[in-house]
């Protein structure tokens, strides 16, 4: 056997691909349009044997109800999506089902407020009853509460200075627009504009009709990066003070003295004539218990 190494041989040089003749027509790939953010959605149930857990899983698909709630909230408060810079950078939302007083509340986790938790009372869920008039009452109420709390995961709050009643009113406005208001909700003309919840939600709904759809979206946007100042906030948006707006809204109602406890809503036709509709007066919704965060 020879100890001499084999002679080196030249390797073949690969052929260069032929150039493709340039054409006058060029094709460009369209830039993707910004879409709805897709946060990580999680579920935690702390007692699978609780009667409320049985109701929840019997009536609800958690993945669907959470993703649908995200879509509803963002479509109501932020569409058209010209860019996602105006949308809070919420990265994950965890629905926590547990036994606790009240109904529900939303908070951010201590380490990073971009991660939200919705705490929902299993005791409250267990108490929701279907009726012959509303056989889907359990699912609708669960979905309505989740939509309300989902708003708190995405809305602006004027750097923490916005009135709590306005924050809660916007949340119930979105719930109202999604046709998830419970049967006991009624329009009310008394009290303060920022009493919150459905009381303020119907006021915001009236503003959307009075000044054009999308004005609640403008209210939310105006709460993004400035501290709330009531004197200037509403005038910059609508040219009137919020008290003037509330007075105008309240004038669509009047109390009929001939029938105790009846709320009469006035609707003005194109000729300025008043058409009235009677509806029973109800008390304000009881506020949910909230140890921290938004309710």
Topology:
Layout: E1 40-45, H1 51-59, H2 62-77, E2 92-98, E3 104-108, E4 115-121, H3 122-126, H4 137-152, H5 164-177, H6 197-211, H7 215-222, H8 230-238, H9 242-250, E5 253-255, E6 262-268, E7 274-280
Parallel strand pairs: 1-2, 2-4
Antiparallel strand pairs: 3-4, 5-6, 6-7
Helix pairs in contact: 2-4, 4-5, 5-6
Defining key terms:
7 strands, 295 residues, alpha/beta, four-stranded mixed beta sheet, globular, three-stranded antiparallel beta sheet
Strand fraction = 5-15%
Structural class: alpha/beta
Question: How far apart are the termini?
Answer: 89 Å
Helix fraction, binned, reads 25-40%
* Strand order within the widest beta sheet: 1-2-4-3
User: Which sequence of SSEs, written as H and E, runs from N to C?
Assistant: EHHEEEHHHHHHHEEE
Major sheet details:
4 strands, mixed
Uncertain stretches: 19-34, 256-292
Over all CA atoms, what is the radius of gyration?
28 Å
Label the overall shape.
globular
Number of strands: 7
Treating each run of at least 4 consecutive H or I residues as one helix, how many helices?
Answer: 9
Mean pLDDT: 81
Q: What does this entry look like structurally?
A:
The chain has 295 residues and is of the alpha/beta class. It contains nine helices and seven strands. It has helices at residues 51-59, 62-77, 122-126, 137-152, 164-177, 197-211, 215-222, 230-238, 242-250; strands spanning 40-45, 92-98, 104-108, 115-121, 253-255, 262-268, 274-280. The protein has a four-stranded mixed beta sheet with strand order 1-2-4-3. A three-stranded antiparallel beta sheet has the order 5-6-7, with no helix packed on it. Strand 3 and strand 4 (115-121) form a beta hairpin. Helix 2 packs across helix 4 (137-152) and helix 4 packs across helix 5. The model is unreliable at 19-34 and 256-292 (pLDDT under 50).
